[in-house]
Amino acid sequence: MTWTQRYCFAFATMIAVASAIRFEIKADTMQGAAAAAKAAADSPALVGALSKEIGATPEQAAGAAGALFGLAKSRLSPGDFAQVAGAVPGMASLLGAAPAVDAGALSQVTKAAGGLAAATSAFSKLGLKPELVAKAIPVLTSFVTKSGGANVGSLLAGALK
User: Fold this and answer.
1) How many structural domains does the chain have?
2) pTM of this prediction?
3) CATH number, domain at 142?
4) Counting Cβ atoms within 10 Å, is residue 11 exposed (0-12), middle (13-18) or buried (19+)?
5) Among 61, 90, 116, 154, which is disulfide-ready with 51 (CB 3.0 to 4.6 Å)?
6) What is the tens place of the pLDDT at every residue in 141-151?
């Protein structure tokens, strides 16, 4: 094989790899958008209220709700989270609409301090300002309280402190 042939082969390989990576990123983005649209359709009352409160699109609001419910799920016992999930139509879709957050990137200090670093990171990935987490939590807890009762709303509120 001549030097020119090797160069052309290497260049063609780089283009193929770059195309594959771009396709994978585009597919992930499309799947995320589809999941958010499904979540918005599965839980229109909650997503509509959250969208209005934080000034977001329904897809962003669905992802934001999913991120916060995901945080609550990680902090509650399975039984307690089942009560919260029972009060929210489309919970599985909402959880699926949340953007992936690298939990390993969060320091132990942040976790120990009880911060909402994972949620703020998810909001940023959704194109939302991190300070909107504080505006979103009361919307979710109010919705869960109305649909599941005061005890279930308190479970969620405690998990999102």
Assistant:
1) 1
2) 0.75
3) 1.10.490
4) exposed
5) 61
6) 999 999 999 99
